[in-house]
Amino acid sequence: MSFLGGFFVSDTMNKKDHIHYIPPQGDYFTFNDEDHYLAKGMEWGLLTARSVKKELVFKTGRHEERVTLKGYQEYGIDGQFNTIVLEFDDGELTCIHPAYLKEMQSAGFAKELLSGGSTEYSAKKEVTDKATSEEATSVEKPAVVKKAKAKKAPAKPKLELPEEKVHFTASVKEFTEKMNHFTGETDEVVLFENVKIIGEAELYIGDAWCGYSKTLKKLELEEGVELEFDGKIVDKKFSKEVRYKVNNPSKLKKVENN
Description:
Strand content: 35-45%
Number of helices: 6
Largest sheet: 5 strands, mixed, barrel
Helix content: 10-25%
Number of strands: 13
Strand order of the largest sheet: 9-10-11-13-12
Radius of gyration: 23 Å
Structural class: alpha+beta
Oligomer: single chain
Mean pLDDT: 79
Distance between the termini: 81 Å
Shape: elongated
């Protein structure tokens, strides 16, 4: 016998007898980098800026083990709801609602399950119940939800980005802000459209974003202004539509249209 999380478990116990795996259906989002991982973890209430855990605890009434956050799937009219994709130490994947995973982190979670007569965790039931409850609060009707999902565009293929600095052309699309989860404040951001890498290895990027630095502010930019500049492009998501970020823009020049 071994002692886990306040209750005894048989060493020969097969965890698959107590876990109903619900693998992700189709593609799911993975984390772009540490900032993205922290931002989503804080959004779900699982992480804090001072406590960036690489592992969390998965519990049932008879089983407990460490798991990692593999990624997430989106659902709802605008993809505003998430289902977390967990990975066990044996590589098995399962989906779970963020609120339920958060409950699992409490010390008395397993005891509450046992006292309530439950001996196993049904991931399928939890995900289904949570999704049904949240979608029921939406102002849209179910038929509208189905219509929106049917029109959802397939994910764009990931671009092969150059590692070195390159030369760009782009147009200023919008000025906005982005939450900085490390400072707890918002940073000024400029969104670009029609971003292109020009030169020997031309590549069309589309939309991208960049911190609205003092260097950019000196140009007194306005929406619609076309620019040429040097910089580095990286895979760092601003939103579902804007996946790439321009770092360290330099040699900036406004393009005059005659």
